[in-house]
From TrEMBL:
Sorted UniProt keywords: Aminotransferase, Pyridoxal phosphate, Transferase
InterPro entries: Aminotrans_3, Aminotrans_3_PPA_site, PyrdxlP-dep_Trfase, PyrdxlP-dep_Trfase_major, PyrdxlP-dep_Trfase_small
PROSITE patterns from the UniProt entry: AA_TRANSFER_CLASS_3
Keyword Transferase: yes
Record's protein name: Aspartate aminotransferase family protein
Protein source organism: Phreatobacter stygius
Length: 445
């Protein structure tokens, strides 16, 4: 029996785990018991360095007492309050504080905030706002939503329809009237890129192809991850996002950036909007919004989009959309405490200071067995391995298990390893990540 298997193995049966090979996992479980700072502790007492900030969300590191205190206080003051035709001060307070760090700064005007419960809900909310906006400005024929191959936008029906990861789509029907841009992954031209790869800006012109195919007057919005995470870290080619913005403008199409993973300091800037200097019309967030402590998401909308919907007869609800947990008081309390930590510790820009050392360390893995690419931006890295013949994903999975046993949590998609550690990391953590992964790569066949 595996050392980590709990004695009462029957207790593993009831929990149907998400995005997990349930039977394989339950036969040899990996269970985490606690966390502090950069590290988890497994149930058998081993320290495991968190190379992934949980799931790209614990940007300020684990066990932040300030967040705990804020949550405790809020729970004992106002545990829940409805947000439909009712309000509570902390939701307004959090939205106002978010507006002070909103993507692109004050000039971008992305300071109207709609709260959700997760990244998937943020995506579906942004898509619906885009459709409502087009209709409100007399462009009701614009109902088509464009995503991108290999995109990940959560698991709602809207998100999987614009998403482009085949396993997440093949079993489920999708929204009619969606289409996809080509993805930007091009190892032949861009392998071992540091930061934005040189080649591929012209792939944005694929939107012109879709406009020619469907007619601009049918297209409401385009949604992309500025840096694609879940598919295995795809960094936009230089000039690509700028070109996408220009084409959207030319055709009256809204641009949505899905910043669920890039938001809140991941690239060394508060948002990818700030990193790339490209301003979309809507920005989806979640994860780092509350440091992962309480499930919550938020959509930043431009004033133009928001104001277009603030019309109609007195007393009319402007947007028939919202969740029971939109603006949940405990989520807001966690979020405000998180923003305070980010501000005091400079975490929304700390990644910029570390990015050089991070990049050098990750690129030192070049040349190790089976490595065919290393790509980095901010505090993100993707390490792509050659797949075993007829066994896509098996090699990276073996590396993942090996690393976990040696005390490092990594994330794998297919045969790509992704890193996105908490932004409190230090040089010694970077060195440990590279050392443990390097040894694992040498061991795994
Ligand atoms: C870009 C992006 N959008 C949306 C989501 C979905 O977020 P959630 O799992 O909170 O629904 C994710 C999750 O990883 C993501 O990376």
């Amino acid at each position: 029996m595996n050392a980590q298997t709990p004695t009462n193995s029957a207790s593993l049966e009831n929990y149907w785990m998400p995005f997990t090979a349930n039977r394989q996992f339950k036969a040899a479980p990996r269970l985490l018991a606690s966390a502090e700072g950069m590290n988890y502790t497994s149930i058998d007492g081993r320290t495991v360095l968190d190379g992934t900030a949980g799931l790209w969300c614990v940007n300020a590191g684990h066990g932040r007492k300030r967040i705990t205190a804020a949550v405790e206080k809020q729970l004992s003051t106002l545990d829940f309050a409805p947000s439909f035709q009712m309000g509570h001060p902390i939701a307004f307070d959090f939205a106002e504080k978010l507006s002070q760090v909103s993507p692109g700064g004050p000039e971008a005007g992305l300071d109207r905030v709609f709260f959700t419960g997760s990244g998937s809900e943020s995506v579906d909310t942004a898509l619906k706002i885009a459709l409502a906006y087009q209709r409100a400005i007399g462009q009701g024929t614009r109902t088509r939503l464009i995503g991108r191959e290999r995109g990940y936008h959560g698991v709602g029906f809207g998100g999987i329809s614009v998403g482009g990861i085949v396993s997440n789509r093949r079993v489920f029907p999708q929204l009619p009237g969606t289409d996809h841009l080509r993805h930007t992954h091009d190892l032949a031209r861009n392998a071992y890129a540091k930061g934005e790869p040189e080649h591929g800006a012209e792939l944005a012109d694929d939107l012109e192809r879709l406009v020619a195919l469907h007619g601009a007057e049918t297209i409401a919005a385009v949604i992309v991850e500025p840096v694609a995470g879940s598919t295995g870290v795809l960094i936009p080619p230089k000039g690509y996002l700028q070109r996408l913005r220009a084409i959207c403008d030319r055709h009256g199409i809204l641009l949505i950036f899905d910043e669920v993973i890039t938001g809140f300091g991941r690239l060394g800037t508060p948002f990818a909007v700030d990193y790339f200097g490209v301003v979309p019309d809507l920005v989806t967030t979640a994860k780092g919004l509350t440091n992962g402590a309480i499930p919550m998401g938020a959509v930043f909308a431009s004033r133009t989009v928001h104001d277009a919907l603030m019309h109609g007869p007195d007393g009319q609800i402007e947007l028939f959309h919202g969740y029971t947990y939109s603006g949940h008081p405990v989520g807001c309390a966690a979020g405000i405490a998180t923003l305070e930590i980010y501000r005091e510790e400079g975490l929304l820009t700390r990644g910029a200071e570390l990015a050089g050392a991070w990049q050098d360390a990750m690129h030192s893995l070049r040349g190790l067995p089976h490595v065919i690419d290393v790509r980095t931006i901010g505090i993100i890295a993707g390490i792509e391995l050659a797949s075993r013949p007829d066994a896509i994903g098996k090699r990276a999975y073996d590396v993942f298990v090996d690393c976990f046993e040696k005390g490092l949590l990594i994330r794998v998609t297919g045969d790509i390893i992704a890193f996105s550690p908490p932004l409190i990391l230090e040089q010694k953590d970077i060195e440990r990540i590279v050392a443990v992964l390097g040894e694992a790569l040498k061991r795994v066949a």
